[in-house]
């Protein structure tokens, strides 16, 4: 079993302290399926209240110091004020997420729509988000293109790619040098015949054409059944094109469950590639972001749980004995190499992480601490009147 | 190529004339994904207007003489009056579809909910739907149990099965002898870890326990990737447990696209099993129902297209040379047997169906006829004010 | 974190000591894909040498006291002698596995073949295996029907089901009262359009018709992508029709990797349903069998690893706090119930199992013990000349 | 329904006459699954006899003028003589396919193997194949890298990519300017955790680094479930990186069934993208190659059927009314655009193709002509003694 000598322990703790996991503002609001959105009590009614929730998650976990926002869901009059509000609560605004799916005009697409006036509108929204990012001090524009078609023949696959390139090019050229455009891909939904950016290959090809500030965003729920996601992660790292993650977990489609809940071993394997490539550190510029929908479970504890799941997987990845692994791999020792990995995965890292938190003055059990804190009761009592935020709100 | 002698032609025409395809009231309303419902013009504002649309589809196609309803979406004060309204327009009310997913109480399930009071409410809704069916003269209670869980451990799989059985038993025992309970299964959505009726085996096991009036409902979009649906159809027919279909098509999940749009060959293979088992006729008691969501395309022409797609697949299945097929199969002639099937599939049956319609005094091209009819313009002009019906409306 | 008080520890140890995991004789021989079988050194050349290997796995793990055999791969002149040979080495012969796929006659099927003379031959093979089982004292006839078709139309789906039933009926009626027929299902391969027993529902329907001694065999690698296997396990247990498992793991198809290697959390969830239904004990009559192909890795250590993986998953399942789980489930506490399960899964049970082994006089680390034992060097030295056994040998 | 005016008919006929479909030498030999290779009568015993069979397919169809070879399966002493043998029979040698999977050394990979000496051997084989291609006048080196791993941790994903690049670079640099390296990708099999070239994105990234003579090879059976293949085709065409196809069809995995047998609509959609991009003509340099395994059915008629299936799909694609399609797409007419495509697909093109063949002096029904020709009887009588060729032979 893996035992940590003091030097290694220090190293592991340092790596874990450096990790930043960004939570998404929209996951604090109500969400659901096409069948039903179940409303919960205490849901934020304003972007400010979402920031309060995100700050709470950070206070308890110590590793979630930023919050991604979604425009127009998080539209405010004064973005600099929003950013200051965040800073005052100990976090900052992270990625800016344009919304390209909730306008009536977007029935047949946004950036890829056959009508140039709709494309103009969608492209302008990207430009607006770049501006917002500059106001909030964000350095990531996180672009999910929800465009696609439902029927073969509905539109020209190639024509849509051309339109997509033109729109992205315009946005890319407008970005300041400090900003990156992360282009997300998705296998299907909301369209069911073709998506305009269905896989990492398509995103990669677009990013190559755009330039160095464009990178691929991997949402762990956006793949075909059976896809080896850690292979994609390793390949993109090797190409210098891994921009970041939208973490969540899935059993079937884009289920948007809590990351690590459906397949904790997969999450570990992904983090293992990150650690193997030394891409955990801030310098590697890989954004670790959550993107989830807590349809049934309470939002804030679910978010804490998710942050902890990423942290636990990371800790396990850091425990992998890299020298032993390399040796076994070089020697073609199939079982030996696999065993090195499994040894780390099978280790219970919760005591280690409890220590890490105690060292940092945090409660060793952030979920229990949340339940004891009275925060949930407070928001349920205070957040009445107004309208709860949610998808589309 | 398949040529029809007059005797065979008569036989094929008779079979086609006997076919009944039921359209769903809810598909005339607005629908969408969790990301967006795109509203269309001319959408029905009442159950009566949905019946108008369904009647229009029947007038043009001649093979869609009934409409399924969804409770409470199609709730009215006087169901007998609704049934008369349908009859006056040349159609009738078909299956009654209880809604077990849109109450706030159903967050953790309906018939399988851990709380007995929620189960009571859901079971009462089934009983109410049986009553409505008696008032409308419907003989099918079409039960989709949208229950399930999102996380391993969330609830007891076995406990939920027990609860499900109890609720179905109570409803089953309340049904009149003329009514059938069709139990639909679904692979996933709206739940993403487990569904309480995920596959035909589970539905079959429940139906066996319930009794002869319980049968399995096959929704063509509710299977795992790669599932051979015609095998399930043949197996259920052999067991006397095929209650009917919810037709639609899919590429990925429960996409609810127009039937036959994603894989016309699959639709043909399914109808081929129906024809092979002589289960097309009314006596076979197999309900051919559509269940689709026209998110992007106009509803009524999409419904006509769907009815025609089923009809075309049926015509092709009727053209299969059964004697030649049997002989080739018996002789182990792999390519020969496959070729018999493909010969029918590759035949263009549209001229034949145009004749069939002309014989019946219908326009040979129902879609063109719809566009010429002015119906769409009329409903767009008339159906203003009130609120358009849709999922959840 | 889960801590065990002495009473609970005793209970867990008892349950673990009672667990029997059967290894398959064929997995000690060479195997591969259609592209290549890579030969290894030290491979058994006779059924007796396979038993030696199986006995070695049992000696080291203490929980693998039987070995399944495959006929005709393990054909010998004197089966009673083979059984005695096993007993002398501390194990016994387990399930008898008929081979219905390696005769030239079986190109179009075995029990389902269109030609009655081929069906006769295949059925006779089942009868022969029943006899062998009586000679070896085996109480399980493990039937995998590899039949199916590659092209739509190739044969009648229904006709093949009828033939299958007739053949199984004849075999079933010949079995002694002490024997069970376990009917395995498989999604696809070696046929690629239809399999004659593709899913648990089909196996279940056949078993119901056959009688109480027929039960379903779940091979964990034989499902459609995304299938929730533990749901099937729970459902079959509830119906009294779970006969046993063929354990292995998969990422894509029937990959036949070491159980627990691809998704350890899934293995845990399956064992969790077993433990929850109190079906671990011998009285429950659930056969825990491995069925794997070690294409790349050395056979015996891979088998030990697999046995340990099942044991570790079982230990974790035994650690689940059932009372806490029930309470959280009853209260609709989604996160709480899930956390109870995950708490057990996240526990490192290796120290516990090391103790269990030490208590039983075994080496706490069976893999290290194997490598130290010199067994591998010995068989590599001794097993030269003769022909190594393998698929088809 | 689609009617062809004389000018359009001429155009369609010209396009169809220009189409070349390459058949694979290995598909004339025996093949099977890992469970069983069923031998057939009349199977070639030498590469020359395979060429005889390929020439027969071309004589009957008129559109299969080349045959791909596989080294070392088609190893001969004098490749120039083999090429002349082909020319004498009216066809030519097409793509050279290196075999990187059937050496004992390749257990852990070939070009990606951890041991440099194995990589050297595999790379040398590529160089040998380039030489053979120069001798046979082939301009395509068709590289399938069957490398991968079965267990997480077994080897370094990134390390293997580096090794792969180095080997491909060496081969690429050795190719004459007239030759192209087509890099095939495959989702899984023969490895079940990771493949070293699992998807088009990976192949694309390697080809970009290699240079203009490297392009992606799309095998239609090598994708994750649900993958929209025509999207990939369109995207690669847009990037100038579509090298060609390995056509076959699948329901589950790499089933290698006859192309068009599992999903004829998919084949049509793929050809539709080819026609839409004007990539049917020889100048487009897209290689249309078959790669199939006729496990159950007789090889030569199966190959003829496959060639006809591609030809029928192509004919349908040529019938698509491009102007009407463009207009409907531009107008956002979802149903109208889809209907234009479906109109072509639903057309029975068999009479048209019969005419095309008659014009060319061919029998309108190549399959019937084959059966009448006596060729099958002749080879079954003549090809006795020697050993039938097959996978691994």
UniProtKB/TrEMBL annotation, chains A, B, C, D:
GO terms for molecular function: L-rhamnose isomerase activity; metal ion binding. InterPro entries: L-rhamnose_isomerase, Rhamnose_iso-rel, Xyl_isomerase-like_sf, Xyl_isomerase-like_TIM-brl. Keywords: Isomerase, Manganese, Metal-binding. It holds the Pfam family AP_endonuc_2. It comes from the Bacteria. SUPFAM superfamilies: Xylose isomerase-like (SSF51658). Residues 73-277 form the Xylose isomerase-like TIM barrel domain. One of its GO terms (biological process) is L-lyxose metabolic process. NCBIfam families: RhaI_grampos. This is L-rhamnose isomerase / sugar isomerase. It comes from Goodfellowiella coeruleoviolacea.
